[in-house]
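hi! just following up on the protien thing from before. the input was this:
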Amino acid sequence: MDFSKALEYLKNGYRVTNKNWNGKGMYVTTMPGYEEGVPANTNTSVAHNVSPGTLVKVRPYLAMKDAQGMIAPWTPSQLDLFSDNWVMHKE
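and the predicted 3d structure came back as:
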C-alpha cells in the first residue's frame, strides 16, 4: 500500500512496516500524546528546563521500533512517502 493508506492505518491505531526495511521487527506506530498534560519525568524536566512533575502537554507523534528494539520519534523520509511497499505489521 502507499503511505497515505498506511497513514490511515496509523491514525486508527495499527502498526505498519515497510517491506524494504532490512531490520526484523521494525514498525511505525502512533503515539497518542497527552493533550491534558503528563507530569514531567527527570529526563523531560532537564531537557525542557521545567521542574519534575510539571504538567507537559504532548502532541501526538509517530514512533518507530527499530531492529534493536529501541523506540524513537519518527518522521518519514521522501523515500518513505513515495513508497508503495507499506504493509500492516504482524507480531
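The helical segments are 3-11, 42-48, 78-82.
The CA atoms of residues 39 and 53 lie 4 Å apart.
cheers
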